[in-house]
Amino acid sequence: RASKDHYSCLVDVLSRVGRFEEAYKVIQAMPEKPTAKTWGALLGACRNYGEVELAEIAAKELWKVEPENPANYVLLGKIYMSVGRQEEAERLRMEMKERGVKVSPGSS
What we know:
- The chain is mostly helical.
- The chain has helices at about 5-15, 20-30, 35-50, 50-65, 70-80, 85-100.
- It has a single domain, classed as Tetratricopeptide repeat domain (Serine Threonine Protein Phosphatase 5, Tetratricopeptide repeat, Alpha Horseshoe).
- One of its GO terms (molecular function) is RNA binding.
């Protein structure tokens, strides 16, 4: 039986080569709840390809399990900026502020 780490690795490999739909199907088919590592693998690769739709899904799932982790907000913000969606990136910064999520200097 595959472990959560096996699923995370599979999602990482698929998404790194741009096979996002397959990676997302793997996540949906997992017998256990996906971990932050799994969602993070998808979100990280979405940045390289400008894949906004799945990035938003991954970020929302990450916020459920790691609501105080600024990296998840920052990464989605960078994805928004890379595709010219500055208003959404700014909205995300405001949301972080409202939630009290702080970014350490040098980490964004």
